[in-house]
Structures are given as structure tokens and as C-alpha cells.
Design brief:
By secondary structure, this protein is α/β, with parallel strands linked by helices. The protein is built from 4 helices and 5 strands.
Length: about 100
């Protein structure tokens, strides 16, 4: 998994490439923790994320909770297979998915 970030004012885009699983979720969590400060909107671009495990769901939910304190989290470009995971777990009702 690779992570790239782009900042445009108070909007931060996090581009994730690869699977978010038990091995990579801690890396994503640590990266996101360093980015919350000063971001009013965090967009996680998931166009290249092909798999999300329960560990990945936990990290994404945690990011949503962190951002709710001072802004919002948006998941963008979620592929159909990953979107199904969000739907099966009910996370599509909690998270903002565009």
C-alpha cells in the first residue's frame, strides 16, 4: 500500500493505493493521525483500493470520528467491490461516500 497526500487550503486529499488489511491498516492509521490537524475536510481517494478488511474499516471509522470533531471525512472513488463491503457492514450509512 502507498499513501500520497495533497493539500489545498483546508482540504486534504489522501490517495491510497493497494489493500487496506491487517498488515497495512496500522500504517494508514499512523499516517492519518499526523494529518488531522488543520484539515477541515479530508478526502480519502480510494480509486486504487482493491480490498478493505475489518482492520481497514476500523481505521476509516476512526478517521471519520476524528474528523467529525472539526470537519468532515469523504471517501471518494470507491470501487464496487469495496463499496459492497461498506454496504454489508452498514458503514455506508455512517460514512460519506461519493
Amino acid at each position: 500500500m502507498t499513501i500520497q497526500t495533497e493539500k489545498n487550503g483546508n482540504v486534504l486529499t489522501v490517495i491510497v493505493d493497494g489493500s487496506i488489511d491487517t498488515v497495512t491498516a496500522p500504517t494508514l492509521e499512523k499516517e492519518l493521525e499526523s494529518l488531522y490537524e488543520g484539515a477541515e475536510e479530508m478526502i480519502i481517494d480510494m480509486a486504487k483500493v482493491d480490498y478493505v478488511s475489518s482492520a481497514g474499516l476500523r481505521v476509516i471509522l476512526g478517521a471519520d470520528r476524528q474528523m467529525n470533531d472539526h470537519g468532515k471525512l469523504i471517501l471518494r472513488n470507491v470501487i464496487e467491490d469495496v463499496k459492497e463491503v461498506f454496504e454489508m457492514t452498514g458503514f455506508d450509512e455512517i460514512l460519506t461516500i461519493e
